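Sequence only, no structure available. Ideas?
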Amino acid sequence: MEFYQQQALEAKLKEVGNTPAKADVEAQYKKQIETTLAALRRTQSMMLDTVVSERNRVRTFNMMQSCLRRLNDGPRAAILCEHLALTARQPEIALAAAAEALRLYQFLSREGGKVDPYASNHLMSMAQLLDARFPDSAQADEARSILGRDLISKRQLDSAIAMLTKVKANPGTARYLAGLAAWTKHRELHPAKINAKSAESNQALALLNESVAAFAKMTSKDELEQRTEVQAALLILGIHDTLGEIDAVIASAQPLLVRIEQKTMPTGLAPGTELQVLETVMSAYIQKRDLQAGPAKLLAILNKRRDDPQLGDSTRFLQSTALRIKLQLDEYLKQGDAAKPQYQATRNSYRQFLEQIEKDPKLPLKQRVWLGSSFSGIGDHARAAAVLSLVKAPAVDPNKKTSDTPDEEIQLYRQAVSLRISALRQAALSEADANDRDKSLAVVEKELQKVMAEPWARRNPALLRDDIYLQQLRGVTTAAGAGPYPAGMASAPFCGPSWRRTMP
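Reply:
I predicted one. Tokens follow.
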């Protein structure tokens, strides 16, 4: 009767909602729970001295654990459920009790963000019970996932994989964990040959592909499942990249690229994940020497996600791309004449890649400065100067003191000016005809004089260096009349003490 009175008060509490009567009903409800629990404990003590039917015994324990949960006494409720799971004569009751104990111990083992060894041990016991006694139940699959995670944490990777591959219903997460364990095993067994295929890497890819396929079949996925699905795809991409499988990198990245373009990546991923995917795919295109069709798709994604803080600063992506190509070009140079065709082809493809970026009329200031620097890096100084000339001086804030530290926009403008003067000088030096070269240097010198009228320019080391170079080059050209450098000198003379004295 006490339990039924408790249920009646629970229903009444729901009816009153947030009305003023709630406090009074809530107090009655809590008092009734304690009264019910006291009555149930007396009943339990009497059960020790008399024969009680299995049905009444189960009902008593179920009512007790229900009251304990309502009083937030999870540990005692879990122990009662575990007791029922071990002693119930009917399999369906034992299964339900074991599943409830599993859920309670799972919460208690991590309550407050701290590991509870006692609850963790009992959690594993209930999981093992479900796996062994009820292998075809949905609860057993949940138990196997818990056991698999525990085995991974203990570095028992083979056992973890075996346990996780037994999961039947919705195996996406379990296969992901098994694939992660297999890849971990590959890294541990082959530290010196991590970039080479192995039985473990093949197993990891097979399990991860099963995970992605399983997630694709699900009609609805919660936030954790969506994130795990993407993590499985990211790990597949990372494994192919580590193994140097270029075509597989590009193929496996396509679903991720669609997500990035459509801005449907799940929350909770590590910051910078989207740009890292783009960088990985771009690296694969560079290795294939495809700097046109493939990269054009990536640039389209960047343009679509422009100014999106979630994506991050895409300048980093462009800079990492330039660095990879530079390393590739440097490698070809080391190989000498034998690699000259590859060097020229890569250099031309890179120029076309930069030209694709240049077509963007809304190119951000930071990326335009980078673009000009990149054109200079491949010797296209005239193009670099043209790109940098589009960087205009920012509007002056009359309330800002001139002594204040310049903001990013001003710093980028000054950097662009410095790079443009250097590019103009280099472009002038590339003129084949001595007279044309002399005329071009005169134009550069005139342009530099305009720039040096600004106070900040007179303290800029790069501009001061260019000023010295131009004075020396103009002097040499006038004296020799045959070229920018004295006879026997292959490049511009190093600026010695006079340059250092010019420095502020």
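DSSP finds 22 helices and no strands in the chain.
Hope that gets you unstuck.
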